[in-house]
Amino acid sequence: MTCARRCRAAWTVAALTILIGLSPGASAQAPATAAPPSAGAPARAAALTDAAMEAFLLNATIGSHRSVGAGVTNTVVATLTDGTLTHDAQIQTVDISKTSFEAGKASEFNFKDSYRYNIAGYRLSRMLGMDNVPVSVQRQVDGRPAAVTWWLDDVQMTERERLKNPSLGPTPALTAQQIQVMQVFDELIQNKDRNQGNILWGRDWKLWLIDHTRAFRLGKKLIKPGELKRCDRVLLQRLRALTPAALDQEMKGMLTKGEMEALLARRDNLVKLFDERIAKIGEVNVLFDR
Question: What's the confidence (pLDDT) of residue 75?
């Protein structure tokens, strides 16, 4: 099943369970065994730092869980609790490697679909000063290594739904800036599976990027350089400052040496592209501050 269908199924489960009064980790026939969150739990969850979310995802007891949809392998939504806070998480154990992969008209060599890339995407986003990729940690679940990722509570729609009425959202400038950050990030990680179903909008109109299991490819060239018109100033600064040593330290066990080398080569191409645009049309027309 494609990432789009995985994500669509996951968020459909969330929407339906909200309507019938259950957590995504429960079913209509069998209520969740974990204690329901108290009235103050959502506020506490919203106030947590990344480090606190990581600690919760690593140590909280995993209670009831279910598949996000028929035909989906290795992806579940689970209810976690530490006795004080109860919150949901997405759990993925997929770790597939194929010499070639065929999907309709698309084909890919050296195909990989791995839970590791969700964790790598989260870690890299924070290295770059981005806060719009959900916290994700590696943890053993049922005897298998898995990505355990914080479930986003306050999602109102996917990008597919927003595009049905493009007037929805923050100001056009802010919408464009968030999308441009996404485009730069996706080029950096060479995300092969970004689609309108895994671009989520919060009720505060913050754009969230989820599901990166098919990213971090080995190509060193940019895929769609013509779409890269502008860049967040801090993001470009962080791209310049990204070093092999820092990347190696953050990505131990998540990315191979070849994957990190390819990422740094794409970083070089991104910096070169924006430097050339700045020289040609001026910094004010290329960089923005948020």
Answer: 77
Q: Is the pTM of this model over 0.90?
A: no
- Bridge partners of 147? 92, 138
Give the pLDDT band (50/70/90) at residue 128: very high
Closest CA to 198 of 211, 180, 185, 179: 211
Per-residue pLDDT band for 43 (boundaries 50, 70, 90) equals low
Task: State whether residue 282 is helix, strand or coil.
Answer: coil
Question: Is residue 113 within 8 Å of 105, Cβ to Cβ?
Answer: no
Q: What phi, psi does 200 have (nearest 5°)?
A: -115, 145
Give the C-alpha distances (Å, rounded to integers) separating 98 from 88, 108, 144, 185, 190.
Answer: 31, 9, 20, 25, 18
120: region left, alpha or beta (phi > 0 left; psi from -120 to 50 alpha): alpha
Count of alpha carbons within 13 Å of 284, Cβ hemisphere only?
Answer: 0
8-state DSSP, 233: H
